[in-house]
Amino acid sequence: MFAKKLAWIALALSLGIGVGQTLPSKPSEPKSIGDFFLLDPVTHDLKDLPVEAFKFHIEQTRVSRDNPRSNCCVIMTGIELPGSDSPFHIAVNDKTQFIFKAEAPEQARLFLLTVNAKKHYRSCILVSSKSEGVMGLHRNSDWEPGIGVDITKFGDSSYKLTPQQPLGPGEYALLIGENVRKNSTKIFTFALSGLAQQPNP
Q1: What whole-number distance in Å separates Cα of residue 195 and Cα of residue 137?
Q2: What predicted TM-score, i.e. pTM, was given to this entire model?
Q3: Phi, psi dihedral angles at 130 (to 5 degrees)
Q4: Are 112 and 174 in contact (CB under 8 A)?
């Protein structure tokens, strides 16, 4: 028995594990597909981001009037959120990372978007469409590129989203673009500011 105990202590020391300590546990996994969480840089806990109600809005701008029969215009489809800021505030830092669960992240059209804050609402553009030809019958659509992000594996069934450049103060939104087509869109919001402030549970 004494020999076995000595063997265990030797193994623990060789692995850099103190006696009485345990191996690091696996990271927490999101339960729902499509939900985003803030990864706490210190504790590595997952913090819920608020899902906000929104409505789609459309802006249309005429491009050319050379041909009276032409209806060439740019149509921008976006989202509008109530209130001038997100209820979830994060202190500005260079380690802002998010965790999400997805079946195929490379096909999910993940978006991290800058949100324009107004006095009573916030908004951002998702898709820009340009009609071409007589009567504007031909239309080309382009998704807004959003903020560049890197996607890496996090847990057994989850992924980590990291902005390619540190985010500055402002309003932001996270969403899965593929869900826009399926009418199952969720908009997760957060704001970067000097002080952290999170919604009451």
Answers
A1: 50
A2: 0.74
A3: -120, 120
A4: yes
Name the token pair of 177: 């673009």
The pLDDT tens digits for 10-54 are 434 444 444 444 444 566 788 888 889 999 988 889 999 999 999
- For 73-120, write each residue's pLDDT tens digit: 778 888 999 999 999 999 888 789 999 988 776 666 788 999 999 999
Place of tokens 């965790």: 99
The contacts of residue 158 (CB under 8 Å, 6+ apart) are 27, 29, 30, 99, 100, 101
Structural element, H or E, at residue 143: strand 138-143
- Cα separations in angstroms, 153 against 93, 95, 108, 158, 160: 22, 17, 15, 6, 6
Residue 46, number of CB atoms within 10 A of its CB: 20
**Count of beta carbons in the 10 Å neighbourhood of residue 154:** 21
Q: What is the secondary structure of 26-54 as a DSSP string?
A: PPP--SSTT-EEEE-TTT--EEEPPB---
Burial class for 103, CB neighbours closer than 10 Å (0-12, 13-18, 19+): exposed
Provide the residue count of the chain.
Answer: 201
Q: How many CB atoms lie within 10 A of CB 159?
A: 19
